[in-house]
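Q: My labmate handed me this sequence with no annotations at all. I'd like to see what the chain might look like in three dimensions before we decide whether it's worth expressing. Could you predict it?
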Amino acid sequence: MGKAHSQSVTDGKVPGMELAAIADLLPEKAELFPQAKFFNSGAELIASGEVDAVIIATPHYDHTTLGIAALEAGLHLIVEKPISVHKADCEKLIAAHTNKDQVFAAMFNQRTDPRYIKLKKMIDSGEFGKINRVQWTITDWFRSEQYYSSGGWRATWKGEGGGVLLNQCPHQLDLWQWLFGVPSSVRAHIEIGRFHDIEVEDDVTAYLRYDDGMSGVFITTTGEAPGTNRLEIAAEKGRIIVEGTNISWTRNEVETSEHSSTTDQGFARPETWDIEIPFQDKGEQHLGIMKNFANTILKGEKLIAPAEEGIHSVELANAMIYSGTNDCTVTMPLDAAAYETMLMDKIKNSTHVKKVKNTGASTDDFSNSF
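A: Here is what I predict for the chain of 370 residues:
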């Protein structure tokens, strides 16, 4: 992603940004962008005084240490998802953002998708009425064995800090909390290496409960093909489905609870009509976040994805892993210290050895700066 972000800037796709420097542990990466200064580590780049802003696109644990260094150096900052591996590290990173004149963003690119923007507006306006149940089946994150063997840090507790919940699903977990808020409790079943030779979770089913009675089910895996991406919302004013390029709303003429309490028919459902809201594209995604980042710095535009909000998706992922590991219901907010202790124990007791295939790609530190 560091290479992709740098290419977007050098191609002139982000007005107001210029690529000033890149950093990587592999010296040959300097050849990718010869016009930019090259540093052997993100820490050296951050301390160089050569840049105004940084994008951190490294393995997950470095998001915290490099992020804190960038903020303490007075730089504007975008952190790739997840902003940190676990909640305690998120809190440390967020606490370092003491100068609110520094723009601090997270790469939650799916917040630029018109479907989810429209959905959030309709939820926030109360157009659907009270939401009773949500189910998101997101199983089109298929990954092969080759993917996991392409880097020694992938799919390990020490290198990545988790599996599908920490790598692929931060996007959906961020959208979940953005749309529906943080639940009061989480109960999850996770399977470790069900489909792959890995030591972290690649199959998850979670049940989420809210104080207002709303319930949710979140299902994900990297081992299912072709997979699906279907978000279903059961609300008082009908059923909403987000799938493919449409939002489909089967709208009740009368709210469900009102119909139930007033009808004299035992089996009669509310009358409905169908509403289709089509969308032709998925927004600007990563490019949209970068443009917004630049415009926030230069023009005072409102951030699409403030990094402080990134703690919520990490907390949800952590809660699911903690629940599945310990076969328990997690009451939110998650005990950050308890999760960190569990994670450190997993790292300490890891016996998993991966065969890493050399694909020519960097698997270590790549942070690019502007």
